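Consider this record:
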Amino acid sequence: MTTRELFARALKVIPGGVNSPVRAMKAVGLDAPLFARSGEGAYLEDVEGRRYVDWVLSWGPLIFGHADPETVEAVIAAAREGTTFGTATEREVELAEEIVGAVPSVEMVRLVSSGTEAAMTALRLARAATGREPFVRFAGCYHGHADPFLSEAGSGVRTLGIQAAAEGRVVPYNDLEVVEPVIEGAACVFVEPVAGNMGVVPPAEGFLTGLRELCHASGAMLVFDEVITGFRVARGGAQERYGVLPDLTVLGKIVGGGLPLAAVGGRAELMERLAPVGDVYQAGTLSGNPLATAAGLSVLRRLTPEVYEGLERKGERLDALGQHGRFERVGAMATLFVDDYGALFRHLLERGIYLAPSQNEAMFLSTAHGDEEIDRTIEAVAAFFD
């Protein structure tokens, strides 16, 4: 079946023909999405059999590439035992221990099913702990699609149907001076420690440290949204890389090994505010799903210092893209900023290179990307500018 035929079918039963808006690829000038059939290592294959070097990697979870054999085997073995139980399992405990052992600020963790759910829970916890409603967030950072994170300009999303009460106070990223006047009375400051949803934007020198100090002085909680950066820019995330510890951390993507799983974690006295021991309610039927915990454990247990050293070397090779535009990279996540990103995207797609279908998203390195895939990408980008 062709892409066009499949998209025509999808339009009849799925709004816009896609189950997440960016997949529509309208931002890069295409009128139909890419329909994937399979993936292997650094490559994605579409329904018409075309293969692409994949720099999207399902938006970041696949640090060992597509269909990583060890992860696949772990999921198959778990599925044979049962796909969901609705009660506690040993692997939930093991994954929680793995997260607590890796992420510096996390003493206890609650597993959930999506980054949106984890961010919503972190905000609820911060509000309960401080007795305050408003919070501070940054223009260009994305924390999922719960109402409080979309209720003003700054998320990059326009939508109707949300409740506007107790919204975030939206201020520019990387600007400490604008935070100080609005932090008083705030429950928390919510931030991507490395912005990954307006392209990759590293924190300015002293920005994260300054936020930590402002939060301490005002009594607000500092919340790091490490859905993207967690286990990607370092095993302990951006907080390990930059040496700044938040009160609460939101995790997703890599933590689930490519299956739907996310988490919120922090100091024990904060986390014990969650039900059933505390007065902040949160629940989920599929939280700690046995397939997702199996995938997560398979991935996290292999994230050694050597893995990150290898990813850094690959990233340094990819830095050659900087001769064609502004190239920002932190560890194994990067963005090439150019004037006509849509034209570049289409040029590369025709040559079997798949970048994120939005200038506002990151490209992701994996252990499966080798010199061949990196050099092929660099050469294809260079050809666009010749």
User: Anything to note?
Assistant: The chain has a mean pLDDT of 95.
